Amino acid sequence: MKRDCVAVISFIAVLLFPLLTFGDDSHYTNILVGDRAGALAGAYTAVSDDPSGMYYNPAGIAYASESNLSLSVNGYTSTSKEYKGAIGNRDWLRKSSGIMPNFFGMLRSWGKIKMGFSYAVPDQITENQNDTLFDLPSGTPGLSVSKFMMNHKMEDKTYHFGPSFAIEVAPHLSLGVTLYVHYRYTDYSSNQMAWFSNGQTDWFNSYMNSEEWGVRPILGLMWHQPSKFSLGLAVSRVFALRSDTRLQMTEKDENDKMAIFDPPNSSDMRSYPYQIRFGAAFFPSSSLLITADVIYHTPTDYVLFGTKRSFDAVVNGALGSEYRFRKDLALRAGIFSNRSNTPEIKGTKGENGEKVDVYGGSLALCFFTGKTSVSLGGSYSLGDGKANITADPAIIDMTYRNWTLFISSTYFF
Q1: Domains held by the chain: number
Q2: 77 or 25, greater pLDDT
Q3: Cα–Cα distance measured from residue 178 to residue 72, given in angstroms and rounded to the nearest whole number
Q4: CB of 297 within 8 A of CB of 278?
Q5: For residue 41, which of 332, 347, 244 has the smallest C-alpha distance?
Q6: Segments forming the whole domain that contains residue 185
Q7: Are 336 and 42 spatial neighbours (Cβ–Cβ below 8 Å)?
Q8: CATH number at residue 276
Q9: Would you say the pTM of this structure is higher than 0.70?
Q10: How far is CA 183 from each of CA 131, 149, 157, 300, 347, rounded to the nearest angstrom?
């Protein structure tokens, strides 16, 4: 039966896809980091004059209006990916959601130097999913899959934390640097069971755990004309320094034969792209700001457990605006792109990938009271694309949806 049921085994392997992609490596703007920056859709390279500037362009903190301030952002994010006809011609929905501390930062003046420390979560995926499907085709006449059950848990979180420094090196020109410690943790487990109409069963289990340490330096430059316009440039890259990945897969077929794939731990490290951000900001009046960013990521590739993954160069953009109705109330909004860095899906065997370009918008209200401010807002993004997530060389349609709600507070002291 096993040789005749290739169609069944192909969708039993559907959840191997997260093992190869480690969450959502196909996009670079999965979370809009920061308070004002997030509300402006990440178009912040030429502004960056508050703690979140340490993440976007540390040169901007040289122009922070207060000598001391702190900022924290907490948000709830939810992502769904729907794969059309992925399992027995039926749609499969993958969901991730969770509450996260998006950003925290503090700034302090030290003579002409602005110093700060920040903590950012640029990516987080938390999945806890159980699916049961009935009466699926097996690929063998007279035989069907009476029940197919799969459950999996996955956490893939990236943390950046470290100091920043900035100084005005010439009139209207500042230089800044951030040195983040990079930490990424992935934990994945999946159980899948198929009951056939003849009473036989097939069970599959997979597990992966990965821990990665590195550094992410960010070098920034800003040319600033107060209350008129500014230009910003920031270059950064994650350099992985240590990685340890554990992988195990086990299958028990209808004849109770056990097959185990248990390779030695891998120290292979991901290769991350360079990120180059260029931004421009324009202040038409004291109550209006318009800002735009272009973000370029270089191509890269790496090998893990003998599987090579390649990523194309990608260009994204962001456009944001802030309008102050009055001294104590501001509206912030923006639009952004989150284009895929993966090659075109060709439908070749073992390809395992997805390509969907995502576009979204952000909106927030900010209330100012004395030395404090509170922001309430969120973002929504969506896209349609193609994927190949099973052992069959098939191209399927997929949709991507994400929404995030956040609340943030800033205190000047």
Answers
A1: 1
A2: 77
A3: 18
A4: no
A5: 332
A6: 6-412
A7: yes
A8: 2.40.160.60
A9: yes
A10: 31, 33, 8, 19, 34
